[in-house]
Structures are given as structure tokens and as C-alpha cells.
Specification:
The structure is a single chain. The chain is an alpha+beta fold and 168 residues long. Helix content is 26%, strand content 36%. The protein has 4 helices and 8 strands. It has an 8-stranded mixed beta sheet, sandwiched between helices. It is globular. The two termini are 26 Å apart.
Length: 168
């Protein structure tokens, strides 16, 4: 996959992305609503096994610098149903990069892959849910006290989805 936007190139991950990916997944604040921050070794293994080995995610690369600034989970869960998720380097937060890249991936999924539906889940009821709504996703359900956060507290799990309007 290679998608160009105004400021980004969304492409498959390569082994050389390990350091940039570690700057994202190794940050405690970035990983607050997912799991504990990764070590560099765990990042390398994840990059090789999941991102590259299973084509489970794509990289959001800043056009001007060539730096990977975002990790976008994007994989087919079942026929025509794709899951999306994201983590961005916090130096690039609140600048529209997550929206720009995720919108491009969603458009690609519907236009090129003829996806039926895109789904996402989160325990972050503020930032992630806001982006899901901005992307046009709709709340499909909330599982109350479904999982534990990184501090061991019970958290609600929010499910959002977006259907391909051409297939409705």
C-alpha cells in the first residue's frame, strides 16, 4: 500500500522503521490507553512479526522529513471488515496528522479494497472517540468495565464503526 496525502505518505512498514516506531510505542503517554510502553526489543519484534510479517499496520511518514510519525493498525478481521487504530508520535499531536492519515486509509479501504465496514475500539473516551466521530464513525456499543487500563482500573470499551455507503 502507498497512499499520498498533502503532508504524509502512508506505506507498509520496513525493518528500518524500528527507531521511529519505538519513539511512538515506547512512550508512556502515547500508550496510556492501550498497554505499557514497549522496550526497543519488543518494538523490533512487533515490527517484524505483526507490522511486516502479517501486514497488520501501515506507517504514516512525514513527507518533508521521511520520519515515521504514525502507526496505523489496519487489517482485515473477516471478509470485507477492517479494523483501524492509531498511535502517533506525541511531537505531532493536535496537528491533524491522525485525521489526515486515517481518513486516507478509510477512503482507500472503501474505494480500492471495496471494504464493507471499518471498525475501531478504544478505552479513551475523549481523544480517540473524538477522532472516530470526526472520521464519520458511529458508536455501535459500549462494554462497561470490560477491560483494565494501564493502572489496573476497570475501563469501558467503546466500539465504533463506519459502513461503506456504496454497499448499503
Amino acid at each position: 500500500m502507498e497512499i499520498g496525502t498533502n503532508r504524509l505518505i502512508i506505506r507498509n512498514f520496513v525493518k528500518g522503521d524500528a527507531q521511529d516506531l519505538y519513539e511512538i510505542l515506547g512512550d508512556d503517554e502515547t500508550m496510556e490507553y492501550c498497554e505499557p510502553a514497549y522496550t526497543f526489543e519488543k518494538t523490533e519484534k512487533f515490527l517484524e512479526a505483526f507490522c511486516i510479517g502479517r501486514n497488520g499496520a501501515v506507517a504514516a511518514v512525514h513527507k518533508e522529513t521521511g520520519k515515521v510519525i504514525g502507526y496505523i493498525l489496519f487489517n482485515e478481521q473477516e471478509d470485507g471488515i477492517y479494523e483501524i487504530g492509531w498511535f502517533f508520535n506525541k511531537a505531532y499531536w493536535r496537528q491533524g496528522y491522525a485525521y489526515e492519515s486515517c481518513k486516507a486509509v478509510i477512503d482507500y479501504a472503501f474505494d480500492e479494497l471495496k471494504a464493507h465496514k471499518i471498525v475501531a475500539e478504544t478505552i479513551d473516551a475523549v481523544k480517540s472517540v473524538s477522532l472516530m466521530k470526526k472520521l464519520g464513525m458511529e458508536l455501535e456499543g459500549i462494554q462497561r468495565s470490560q477491560t483494565r487500563d494501564n493502572h489496573g482500573n476497570w475501563a469501558d470499551l467503546y466500539f465504533y464503526g463506519l459502513q461503506n455507503k456504496e454497499q448499503m
